[in-house]
Specification:
This protein has about 210 residues and is an all-alpha fold. The protein contains nine helices and no strands. Helix 1 runs antiparallel to helix 7, helix 1 crosses helix 9 and helix 4 crosses helix 7. The longest helix is centred in the last third of the chain and has 40 residues.
């Protein structure tokens, strides 16, 4: 159980990347008053958690209906997460997410910004949704593990909320260089976790 929780926490925390997300948050809420900033800060993580919860609850069921085995999804999901890790290490992910954020600002600056792009695709994007389905599959129907997974997802979203509240202080403390170093280190960790998902899928297929 402890290994499962640790793996889930590391995977979701690395993919979500609250430190980097706080920088994007500052860009998204630029020009808003403090009241609207706080509203976006809590709405975004809540919406993202609901999306991840749905992926954890219904993801395996949907795969079964499509005739896709968990092992096959582990391999495919691991490769997808490996791609996300490469983007983090080579700094392509940050530019892509910033482009999405800029697009959303021009569409709607206040009302829908918590849902798009903050919640999806920035916080609950393809990588996070894939990880949630994979982690739920690893629970193998164990209710205790599934509840722990949902609690971990909630904790990670709460961490994002806290980082949003102190986003200005984080930006001032770390600077551009500090955020770049952390993002690359997290990318390496995510790459290792992605490879482990692929290995688990291959071993399950061979068993």
């Amino acid at each position: 159980m402890q290994d499962y929780i640790t793996s889930a926490l590391a995977t979701l925390l690395v993919i979500s990347d609250p430190i980097f997300m706080s920088a994007l948050f500052l860009g998204l809420v630029q020009g808003m008053d403090k009241k609207h900033q706080r509203e976006v800060a809590w709405r975004g993580p809540v919406i993202a958690f609901v999306i991840l919860l749905g992926a954890g609850l219904c993801g395996a069921w949907l795969l079964a209906r499509l005739g896709i085995s968990i092992s096959a999804f582990r391999i495919a999901g691991g490769l997808l997460l490996l791609s996300s890790a490469a983007e983090m290490v080579f700094d392509r992910r940050g530019q892509r997410q910033q482009d999405v954020a800029k697009t959303a600002i021009t569409v709607d600056h206040v009302r829908n910004i918590a849902a798009f792009p903050l919640a999806i695709p920035l916080m609950a994007g393809p990588g996070a949704i894939t990880a949630m389905i994979l982690l739920a599959g690893r629970a193998e129907g164990d209710t205790t593990k599934l509840m722990a997974l949902y609690a971990v997802a909630a904790a990670v979203m709460f961490a994002n909320f806290l980082c949003f509240l102190i986003a200005e202080r984080i930006a001032a403390t770390l600077g551009i260089t500090g955020r770049a170093v952390i993002s690359r280190l997290l990318g390496i960790i995510l790459a290792a976790l992605a490879v482990q998902f692929v290995i688990d899928g291959v071993l399950a297929l061979r068993a």
